[in-house]
Design goal:
The protein is an alpha/beta fold. It has a single domain, classed as Rossmann fold, CATH 3.40.50.300. The protein has six helices and eleven strands. It has a nine-stranded mixed β-sheet with strand order 5-4-6-7-3-8-9-10-11, sandwiched between helices. Strands 1-2 form a two-stranded antiparallel ribbon. A hairpin with a 3-residue loop joins strand 9 and strand 10. Helix 5 runs parallel beside helix 6.
Length: about 210
Amino acid sequence: MGIPIAITGLNELIPEIPEGNLILVISRINPVGTIFAQSIALGASKHNYSVTYITSRTCREVAEQITYYQNEAAKGLHIIEERSYRRWKDYIDKKSLVVIDSFSYLALEVSLPEVRIILEEFLHFCQERNAIVVLTMEEGMLDPKVEISIAHLADGIFKFMTRDTSKGIAQFIRIPKWMKAQAFNDNINYTFEGKKINVDLRSRVS
């Protein structure tokens, strides 16, 4: 069992996030990556996962954001402000989900060797305890070598991207890496209007 993907359309490609994996959610400076991570957290809590949501903001702000965008209260989520990266692994329990939002912001002062150790520990505990860790990252915030190293170690990557076109801004998701050496080559079109991420598999961004 894993955590179901609650976004219609996207769940046709990836029905769930399997246990024992480290997932990276990359976006620009916009709320989409965070909203996606929060939807995963709520889905996990409904499937009897122990959920810890580590935030770089305030607990109150996160709870209000979840209520606004997900249209439900943040029940079952342990929202904490934990800036000591040495303690993050302590929240990885059996059948648990740990979300770190934003990992790139909280890791600004962390060196590359330390980041590598953090992620290797995450991978070890995820596999040992059938847990899942989700990291959100704003593209370009960290040193390129650090970002590439994080992507290298992650089991799966959701990348929310934008592109200027003749018809305006196109928004799409890339999944360059998934479990069992899978990759999805298509740009998955999505829209974000108001509160909801909408995916249309019939539309492709070229």
